[in-house]
Known about the structure:
Elements: H1 2-9, H2 13-24, H3 26-36, H4 50-63, H5 74-90, H6 99-112, H7 161-164, E1 175-182, E2 185-195, E3 213-214, H8 226-232, H9 243-246, E4 247-253, E5 259-264, H10 271-283, E6 302-303, E7 326-327, E8 330-331, E9 415-418, H11 422-426, E10 431-434, E11 441-444, E12 450-452, H12 454-463, H13 482-495, H14 504-518, H15 520-527, E13 542-543, H16 549-557, E14 564-567, H17 573-586, E15 594-600, E16 606-612, H18 615-624, H19 628-640, H20 645-652, H21 660-666, H22 701-719, E17 732-739, H23 743-756, H24 758-761, H25 771-774, E18 778-780, H26 785-798, E19 802-809, H27 829-834, H28 837-841, E20 845-851, E21 869-871, E22 876-877, E23 880-881, E24 887-890, H29 892-897, E25 908-911, H30 912-924, H31 930-950, H32 964-976, E26 987-991, H33 995-1011, E27 1019-1023, H34 1033-1043, E28 1063-1067, E29 1081-1085, H35 1096-1103, E30 1108-1111, E31 1160-1161, H36 1177-1182, H37 1188-1191, H38 1203-1206, E32 1213-1216, H39 1218-1225, E33 1244-1246, H40 1260-1270, E34 1271-1273, E35 1295-1299, H41 1306-1324, E36 1326-1330, H42 1356-1361, E37 1378-1379, H43 1392-1397, ...
Helix pairs in contact: 1-2, 5-6, 12-14, 13-16, 22-41, 23-41, 30-31, 31-32, 31-33
Amino acid sequence: MLKGCQIICNKPHTRCRRFTASLTGRIQYRQRVRASWRYVDVLSDLPKSPREYLEYFSSKFKIMGNSHTGHIQSTRFEEMLHNSIEASLRSNTVVPRPVFSQLYLEAEQRLFSNDSRLDEEDDEEDVSDSNSPPIPYQMKPPPEGCCTTDGFCQAGKDLRLSSMATESFEVPPGFLLVGAKSPSIPDHILVCAVDMRFLPDECGRNALLGFSGNCIGCGEKGFRYFTEFANHINLKLTSQPKKQKHLKFHLLRNAQGLLVKGPAICWKGIDSRMRHTVSNIAAGPDEQSGLGPSDLLPNSGHTTLSTINHTDLNTPFHISEGSPPIINGSHVPGLQQQTGIVANGPGRPGIIGSMANSGPPKKRHKGWSPESSAPTDATPKPPTTSMTNGNKAADSGASGCLPLGSSPPFAPGESVTVPDHLLQTCGLRPVIFKGHGTLPHLCGNLADVLVSGLLQKCYRSSQNLPCVYEPYGTAPIQPISTEMQILLTVYYLVQLAPDQAPQMEDLEQIFTRSWRESHLTEIRQYQQTHPQFPTPLPCLAQPLTPSQLPWLTKLATSSCGDAVLVLDTAPSLVEALEDTFHRLVEGRLSQTNYVVIFCMNRSQEIESCVVVTGKHQTRALSESLLSPSDCLREIGHELSSGSAAELGSYFSSLGPDGDVEALLEKASPESSAQYCAQEPSGDSPKPTCTEYFVDWHEIRPIQLAIARKLLSHVCAIADSSTQNLDLGSFDKVEFLICIPPSEVTFHQVVLHLWNSGVLRELGLDQDCLSVKDAEQYVVKLNQSAVGKINSLIQKSKMNPYTLFILVHDHAHSDITSAQYNGGDSSLGLVDSLLNCRQIRDAPNILTLHVTSFPFALQTQYTRISPYNEIHWPSAFNNDVDLYHEKTKYFGVSELLETMHSGSGLPLLRYDSSFESMAAALEERFPKLHSAVIRTHVLIQHYSLALMATAGGQTLQSLQKHISVETLEMMQCLLSTSQRCPSRHGHMILLRIPSPALAALAHQRLCHVRNKLGLHKQFEIILGDPCSSLNVGKHFLDQLKVWLKIVDPDWAPHTYLELEALPCILILTGMDPLGESLPRSLKYCDLRVISCWSLQRTSLEQELGLAAYLLKAKQDAQHGPHAPSDLSESDPEKLSSTDNEEEEVVVDVNNDSLANSSPTGTQCPPSNWTPLDPEKQPNQRRQSKSTSSGSSSSWASPLKQSCSWARNLSRPPVVLLPKAVYDLITTVDPSGLPKSTSFLPHSSVEWVSSFRPLLSKMMTCTEQSLYYRQWTAPKPHHMDGSNRAEGRNDNFHPRRLLLSGPPQVGKTGAYLQFLGILSRMLIRLMEVDIYDEGDINCNCKTDLVRYHQPVASWPNKEILSGMPFDYVIHDPKYEDISTIYSLDFSPNADDGKSRRQEDVFLRRRTARIKLSKYAAYNTYHHCEQCHQYMGFTPQYQYESTLHTFTFSHLLLGEEIQLYFIIPKSKAHHFSFSQTGGQLESMRLPLTSDWNPDVIKSPIFTPTTGRHEHGLFNLYHAMEGAAHLHILVIKEYEMAVYKKYWPNHIMLVLPTIFNGAGIGAAHFLIKELSYHNLELERSKRVEHGSRPQDVWPFIILADDSCVMWNSVDVDPKSGTIGTERNVSLKQVLQHMESSPDITQYGLCGMRKWSSCGGGAGRQKEPFSRGHLHDFLLLNVDLTQNVQYNQNRFTCDDVDFNLRAHSAGLLICRFNNFSVMKKQIAIGGYGTFIIKTKMTDVPTTIQPSQYICAPDSKHLFLATPAQLLLEKYLQHISHRLFSLSARNYSHPVLSVDCYLNLGPEVTICFVSSRPHSINISTTGLLFSGLLLYFCDSFVTPGFLKKFQFLKGATLCVICPNRSSLRQTVVRLELEDEWRFRLSDEFQTANAKEDQPLFFLTGKHI
Length: 1898
């Protein structure tokens, strides 16, 4: 056995033992051979020994020998056999290398390739592994301790040429110095010595196989394998080492003796490509074939024919796990995978492209001829599943049909003459696809030939595939070779079905897949960081040489007969093209669809082209190369020139059944009487249909949701940091809706606008009193739009506070650049008008693009940001209605779902009878455009169907000439209206893109209808975008009755108004322009739309005509996807589930219909007649009916029902051309229809062929990102020039895109958006202002007038004589304790009822529009205050942190405050010259006056309102200079600085993080006084008096929004209106008051819509409490402090103590402040929680205190807050005698604490010389002592009288001071205390609780 193995294999015994072990497993080996060899009889009796194998196969081969090879020598056969068997053993698949295919193909190739030699690029190592999947190469690990440095050998010697150039070393005889390239150091060449016998000569030949080399560095010799040598010199390769790849240059010594790089080593296959590339570069960019830089690399021919597997004819395809098989470049599920197979079209055997290694067998084998190669072939068994191919329109742009006259001049003999009368002779116009090289110049009859560059563009695109990886740092990857491109092209053409046209995108996908598989290692390396591409299947990378190409292409075409012809023997393309034309003229190509031509030119470069000669294919391609305008022009020419008249003559020549006019004469008038309306006689009332209704004005919930989504995007633009939209500055919305130039769409949008209520919302209804007036807001994008757009631009400039919304509806309709309109004024208008600079730069114009097909607007250079896209959501999720819709959308995807629903026939169909007739006529009339032919066939079908339905029994025989679909539609149209009392019926949409053909169809069909007397049964309407609708008077009267319209001049202007009108609507125009169709649409006939020039947009907008809003009804039998109607002719079966109306009436025993197509229906037999249900009741249940009319139009008048109403829940049936049907029903690998992978629009192009397919799981947003990445606009696209330098995007900031499926309700959505946007702007311009009248107004009116009403400023003397009003009138203090006053007599019911019942209600507010003097929060952005706010990019708002320290006795320690001062505000402060330390805040002098300066610093304490606080005072100050300081807590410093970077911050110390408003006021006042002293000392040094320094500060609440002033008539003194004024005006007026420094506090009243209170406003100045906004004199009030512990009512407490200290408090009653309601943050927000958890819990006020030393639940809340809250809620029980007892108040000494609204407080001060209320004769019901100081003495307390049982409450900071106070004040003398009367706040000891003691008066 081993001996036999040695004879065959010539291998060592170890290999033979492996071989022997494999032969032992006989069953496994049989499987391998069975799966690989072609002939089944070979497997019948396998031998058992190697010698028997030799004899057996020799005998078999002689029997099956090829006539071209004759007898083969045993040596050659042994070699092939060995290779095949060893490949089988070494392969880890079950597919060995077929030996017979090697021998056959190589023998044939040697015979026909003359002396051509094979490419020797691949090393012989690959022969035995040629059928194994590629395994990523792993180099042998280097020995331990050896050198692994790049450029050095493993011995550590330097091999780099740069280092060894001057070295001298010995080169053995017969060796040459060569340079090797290492991928790890591409800039260096490594010096090697290689035996010259293994190197090629200058011609690239005579190189022996194998390798022999020496290391020059260390001197090691005898490397017999290049792999070992590569390891030794540290090449560090990731692929199999090959000498052809890495030995690059000869090395030579120059004249100086230096070793330098010499000529490149001429490995064959590289030199020719290098010359090709160099010649292309020299020829310039226009002549280059698109080869990238990687073409200069060796082994550039590494490609694959998908898989190299071979199958037996009777054996199923070998299945590899992976992706589905390629079917014409796409993937079809359900078919098992044959890796890389280019599968077959229907009924055509396939070719499995198989290519074995073309290199020699294992090295040092004897008997190998360098002439031989081993490509193999096999023909698989064609699959039984029908495979379809889609037709993709060719690009009609620059790469489409090339003008022949523009070819450069050619030398004589290089041009090809097109024969005369080629079209007439052959019946076709051949299409020549440019391929590789230069196409010869054509001359002669050029009109009969088309030349396209699409294939050449495809080739170039595939050559650029490797460039995808280069930006990511991977090694250069070689593109697909020219040979492989041609071979794959042949394979693709072979598998096309006879009715399919080539599609370049399919070919691109084939190239991409093949290239991926041939470079698996590199792709995997790329995918490690970029996993978006699907993992390709493993296969082999094999070189394809020019000598192999002819045989492989002929092998590929051997199974398709004459369909594809390969011409490879001609010396040039000129001769080959001439030969092709001769064959065409002679008729030898009648069965040939494609002629593939390739040859080698003089430069040994391949030139190629493809000539399309199939009639169907040439027609498809020639029509796809026409632009839409050219197509219309050609159709018009054919109609006007009479060419189309031949069709009419042909129909008439068909016999009596083809002459329509003759048939019309036969039709008797009474035959159609059954369809004539029966009008009631006499005065009997006309019956009416009670089911009719229209609901196209109804706004659906999902539309409101989209409107809100649009609004949120607009708000996001306004809120972004780019400041591109200032919503706060707009007070009004205006809009203009731009639509395509369609009359119907124009009136449709106007009608929606009029009924939406938007005009009323925007306040525009006063100018729009009728629908006609609403037309001013809608404009058609034609020349009339120029004036309206210009008017809008001018209005936007004149009204900067109006936001203009420019709605561009149907935005995909015109995307042509204004620079490329080709002289057509209707093109490029959108670009010139909506993309002009005026609209782009206008800050108050927002553009909204609305479209159902946004793909053309989503390119690499789009103007719309992906964040500004709004996509229509799905209304249902898992059959759950998310928006509670009454309707359900039924669109394209739902139509496709009916293909698999299984309930009745699908809604999406094609008409096989129509297609057969059209195809026959297209072949008969090759000069006519297919649209002309198909339209005439359609007219003929409709005409005959009308006559067959209504022409009586005499014309029943016509049914054999009519397709079932057409007959069904006409019967339904005529019969359904007869069943409704009001004659409601259905609409049939007939889509004819050509206006000329549509007019012809309208004329012919009207003629037939009128001849049959059916002019009152249904209307035929021509829907032309350029003209209005024309409806007959009879149907016009019907519509008026149905719609209840009394206007005699009314006429329908939209298709929606044709609801329920039985009619045929012939819709024309190259593209639908947004017209909505009524719900009575039942059939959508698209059989005449273009079958070839289709992009995704054009196809989906045609299908979008059938989109439908189904009436949602929860019916178990007829769900939302029920595709069919019930039989309308059998009222008894209306409740059945038989979908009769969608089924075909057939005789089940008739064999002629047994083979009907599962997707298309066949023409019924000639003896087919409608079934009469009355005569044949039983037969009806046995057969099926395709239409209601098939079982007849004779409905029972007693059981009439409205078919229109029943069909509201059923979508229309759609008829498509067969080619289009195949496209959308073919599924790509992702599960999407194949049409989704089309080019989205003719104005864009794919960026690269190397792109993934769209995924079924992609959302609309992900699809947008996909197109943004993989498509780019062409030059004539309006976005083609939208490229910004230095960046990838150039988005317009105020541009939005709304996309949604067709007919879904986008118009209603954006109209609602306009309405809610207007409401929001009004809401933004309005704020909720507290509008509450003054409380406690029952004061005794004093008739004394102190100041004159016209007095501008208070008089100090007069003011001093005015009484102080102790009573609090601010309504925010409605729930606090009333202050006792002799002048106040409370009403018994005043406020009590509200306090009890409305305590939880919000305070009363009024919505007030902001004025131009308002204060704003951080959401306001306008150009005027950008710099003030710190949002101007060109300014740097850097801030510095400064420390300010001062001491205060009350705090007992130094206070350290932090100032954050922006550099722009540093001038307000003084800093030390050394160190820049903050010294003081600059203050002006009292005598200073500047009209643009506010003297008083403004302090605003704030917390929790970094976004909502009104700190932007720029507009309120009218831009005047002022010092504004925000007083914040330390933990909020970062967030306030972020939102207000240009504001000064005063940061409170850490200990005040939990403090209340009292602490902030206390520190502000004390800091200001300390700063005043510092400034005074500085002024004194400069000669000023201390009192000259301005002593005032402003304490302002963070919710003060506007200020008002009351106008007073200077003559009469009467009070006028209250108007809004600026804060600057108010402050400057107050600061300029005479003797202002003598006032302690100045303020103003709070605004109320009812004025300042009864009798109060007449006095311009008064003395009383001041709140929220006050001017504080820190000098006079230095001894009156804010209580730093207080959380509530600290201003009331401060006012009372300031007044008692004798300070003047003046309120300017002619000024008022408006406070905005802010629900977020503020010092009024208190959180009371326990120490056990941070979660706020409900805690009763009684738990705020506890007995000392008790085990109580402690609270994590400041003690002062607990005390204040406890007293507020519990004091009416604590001071029981005081509850609702105004005449006996509680005496409060030196403080005011809120004891609740039921308790009255009488405030007295213990200070000497203080001003107190007279308490003579007043009995107090209680005494409140809070933190008593030394001024409170026992004698002072004995001045006051108390009721018996009055309550005492003494509050102290600790327990010891409480006892000391009781003793010091001798309280035990008059008050009784108990041990249980001592309490503390519920605080832990470390939180310093407060203690208080209660007692009763004795």
